[in-house]
Amino acid sequence: PDDRYPSRFGSEVLITRRLDPVVWGSASDGPLSEMELNFYTDNGYLHFDDLLTPEEVDTCLQELQRLRTDETIKHAEEAVIEPGSRELRSLFAVHRSSAVLKRLANHPKLVAIARQLLGSEVYIHQSRINYKGGFRGKEFYWHSDFETWHVEDGIPAMRMVSCSIALTANTPYNGPLMIIPGSHQRYVSCVGATPENHYKASLKQQDIGVPDDVSLSQLVQDFGITAPTGLAGSVTFFECNVMHGSNSNITPLPRSNVFLVFNSVDNTPVAPFCGLPPRPPFIAEREDFTPVGPARA
Amino acid sequence: PDDRYPSRFGSEVLITRRLDPVVWGSASDGPLSEMELNFYTDNGYLHFDDLLTPEEVDTCLQELQRLRTDETIKHAEEAVIEPGSRELRSLFAVHRSSAVLKRLANHPKLVAIARQLLGSEVYIHQSRINYKGGFRGKEFYWHSDFETWHVEDGIPAMRMVSCSIALTANTPYNGPLMIIPGSHQRYVSCVGATPENHYKASLKQQDIGVPDDVSLSQLVQDFGITAPTGLAGSVTFFECNVMHGSNSNITPLPRSNVFLVFNSVDNTPVAPFCGLPPRPPFIAEREDFTPVGPARA
After folding, report:
1. Cα separation of A287 and A282, whole Å?
2. How far, in Å, CA of A171 to CA of A119, rounded?
3. A183: which of A167, B3, B45, B80 lies 20 to 30 Å off by Cα?
4. Paired sense of beta strands A160-166 and A235-239, if any
5. Residue spans of chain B under pLDDT 50
6. Which of B127, B113, B109, B123 has the alpha carbon at shortest distance from B64?
7. What does the DSSP assignment read for B72-139?
8. At residue A27, does pLDDT exceed 90?
9. Under an 8 A CB cutoff, do A227 and B135 touch?
10. Are the Cβ atoms of A172 and B141 closer than 8 angstroms?
11. Closest Cα in chain A to B211
């Protein structure tokens, strides 16, 4: 099919306009109000302080601790290990391996928001837990998730939304998610070609598929930076093409979250636009598009 | 003389009480009020948004740009170069080499505050400009300046104050100075022995003379973290023993500042308490204790 969002074709950098709607549903679908949908259209994210109950958050946190301290999990292909400390940094496909997190991926409140934003039934394209330790937590450089999901996974359109559920407090000091609000309205193509098996390196440190300095400066000059913070249990939905990243964390306060990526069932992947074999299914679903959440009335 | 603040003697970690006053002068000395002095006693820092005029700030900023782009300066021993980019990261002893920054080090407003806090005439123990670039600016791990100045430079007592003059905006996002307010009331001894010529490595990345994880967690639990932010020209005075550090900076916004360390003329250095030769004079003054600022009435 047509590559409407070309990237990584040589040395050309280009900032182009987004070609897809931001909100695919409408206020009448609920639960989000017109005002909330407008905020999302303009800024590319929505933040909620208490969508989940304290019990739900606590259950997830306990599950996170269990997964982190399970030595066998560190050897799984779904695990990303911190180079220095041998600690678990991320674990993928947790909506498959963990009953607790499968329940979270099907949470009626989360799924209802994803359905409304994407205007259809939704399935999980990717899920993971992230554990950013204190003291020596590393930065995540700026990127648009969609750029990678399009180029490396073959997702055709910007009809996806990520959902980050904080399991520890996000403060201004412990390397919170930073967002360039409004940047989802533009598409920043990146330079360089995709290497084979790029995901193995890029999960630790990404250097292909990241925007150049000039484009980033332009975005920040036009839109600024924001960082939604909140206690454990706060939830941030952010649009698949919004530019985001995070600084390092030298505070003693770790930053852990569950990350769920919802995709529309009408936007399932085709062959990757970089021409290489697709990433493995635990990183990017390409077979099982079963909708999540309660059956629709 | 007596080592009242032992550190780096083997593997023992100890948090002890501060043995010196925090404020050595009094409110009647001016310009700081009783309330400001109390804030400094409790928190170990004071932040001012507009102590300097925009013209003064602009002059310093131009001087910074001049120094940064002077290729000969990068080869000076006073220069610290960013390992990757070969860019200037810090330049020491700028109150000697630059007429503009010498004037700043003698600024009546800055010196008056330093005199009041230290209760005496003051001289410059160390001065430098710091340039933390955007995109790939590195973190500075937590440390007490006094720990190093005591162990490696032989400063006997906690009667010093640092003054950081922002030459670019400090935002919550570009790796601002983080302070553990109140931590100056305790002394965290560090493990490990000081290697010879430690300053050559420690200016790039410090691993000796940094607090252990348990001590840091204790301090943050007891005192929390704060990060004074402000526009270019804002000034932060912070006590020599307050624990501070900064995260990385992936934003396009560089963070530049001038850093002046005032010491009391009654607290001049003796032989370093680590038993090694002292650091070079461009990092730690040990000969010229001429007071800065206008002559006292």
Report:
1. 11
2. 32
3. A167
4. antiparallel
5. none
6. B127
7. TGGGSTTEEE-TTT--EEEEE-HHHH-HHHHHHHT-HHHHHHHHHHHTS-EEEEEEEEEEE-SSSBPP
8. yes
9. no
10. no
11. A135
Tens of pLDDT along B132-143? 888 888 888 999
Please give the residue of chain B at the shortest CA–CA distance from A177: B173
In a domain, B223, yes or no: yes
Q: CA of A136: which chain B residue's CA is closest?
A: B141
Residues of B within 8 A of A217 (CB-CB) are: 134, 252
CB contact (8 A) between residue A220 and residue B252: yes
Whether residue A35 lies inside any domain: the answer is yes
* In the predicted structure, residue A99 carries a pLDDT above the cut 70: yes
Number of domains in chain B: 1
Phi–psi pair at A226, nearest 5 degrees = -135, 155
CATH of the domain at B105: 2.60.120.620
CA distance B219 to chain A (A): 10
Asked if the Cβ–Cβ distance from B141 to A171 is below 8 Å, we say no
Provide the token pair at A131.
């554990």
Whether A275 is covered by a domain: the verdict is: no
Helix (H), strand (E) at residue A222: helix A213-223
| pLDDT reading at A9 higher than 90 | no
Answer yes or no: are the C-beta atoms of A293 and A111 closer than 8 Å.
yes
pLDDT in tens, A261-287: 999 999 999 999 988 999 999 999 999
**In angstroms, rounded to a whole number, what is the distance separating the alpha carbons of residues B178 and A38?**
35
Across the interface, do B213 and A135 touch by the CB < 8 Å criterion? yes
For residue B206, the model assigns a pLDDT of 63
- Indicate the Cα dihedral angle B163, B169, B170, B175, nearest 10°: -110
The residue of chain A nearest to residue B180, with distances taken between CA atoms, is A251
Q: Do B246 and A250 lie within an 8 Å CB cutoff?
A: yes
Q: Which of B168, B214, B247, B249 to mutate to test the interface with A (most CBs of A within 10 A)?
A: B247
Distance in angstroms (rounded) separating the CA atoms of residues B100 and B154: 29
- Would you say residue A154 has pLDDT above 80? yes
Residues of chain A with Cβ-Cβ distance to B247 below 8 Å are: 139, 173, 175, 247-250
The alpha-helical segments, DSSP class H, found in B203-294 are 213-223
How much is the average pLDDT of A45-57?
95
ipTM of the complex: 0.85
Residue A297: per-residue pLDDT: 64
- Domain containing residue B98: 14-264
Q: Which range, of A203-207, A282-286, A289-293, B269-273, averages the lowest pLDDT?
A: A203-207
- Predicted pLDDT of residue A134: 86
Residue A289 domain-assigned (yes or no)? no
Are B217 and A171 within 8 A, CB to CB?
no
Q: Can you tell me the distance from the alpha carbon of B50 to that of B232, in angstroms, rounded to the nearest whole number?
A: 9
State yes or no: pLDDT of A60 exceeds 70.
Answer: yes
CA A269-A272-A273 angle, 5° bins: 115
Report the alpha-carbon distance of residue B84 to residue B70 in Å, rounded: 18
Q: What is the pLDDT of residue A131?
A: 87
Q: Which residue has the tokens 């935002």?
A: B171
Contact B141 A250 (CB under 8 A): yes
Instruction: Give the model's pLDDT for residue A1.
Output: 67
| Residue type (1 letter), B163 | C
Residue among B5, B80, B54, B135 at smallest CA distance from B259: B80
